[in-house]
Design brief:
The strands form two sheets. A four-stranded mixed β-sheet has the order 1-4-3-2. A four-stranded mixed β-sheet has the order 5-8-7-6. The protein is of the alpha/beta class. It has three helices and eight strands, in the order βαβββαβαβββ. Strand 6 and strand 7 form a beta hairpin. The protein has one domain: 2,3-Dihydroxybiphenyl 1,2-Dioxygenase, domain 1, CATH 3.10.180.10.
């Protein structure tokens, strides 16, 4: 068994698609109608057959509450690995990304946290 798709709730699928593809650099894999919303997945440009990230609309009240509470508590919804966290931090800052935690060493890992503009905090990590 392996993870093939993981999802995050987003407030606006179009805005999220733009942020995750244009700002973060993920590659759109699927974008198909699914009722009133769309099935939008992205993959790492380095592993286009790897795990897909689904941009899940938060239209359900429980999803909205879950997303809101995590954000308010400062809890990232997911973590992305990076090769050079300081380089990625500077690149994202130049693109206007707001960080709630700058690169910080936590034992053998360095992490940083940013706002994805779609209702989530995202953690990046370098091992």
């Amino acid at each position: 068994m392996k993870i093939i798709v993981t999802s995050i709730f987003v407030q606006d699928q179009d805005k999220a698609l733009q942020f995750y593809s244009e700002t973060l650099g993920f590659v759109k894999k699927h974008d198909v109608p699914a009722g009133e919303f769309r099935w939008i997945t992205l993959v790492s440009p380095d592993d286009q057959d790897g795990t897909e990230l689904l941009l899940e609309p938060n239209n359900h009240p429980a999803a909205k509450e879950y997303q809101k509470k995590l954000f308010e508590e400062g809890i990232p919804v997911t973590m992305f690995g990076v090769e050079d966290i300081h380089k990625e931090y500077e690149r994202l800052l130049k693109q206007g990304v707001t960080f709630t935690m700058e690169p910080t060493e936590m034992g053998a890992v360095t992490i940083a946290v940013f706002d994805d503009t779609c209702g989530n905090l995202i953690q990046i990590a370098q091992k």
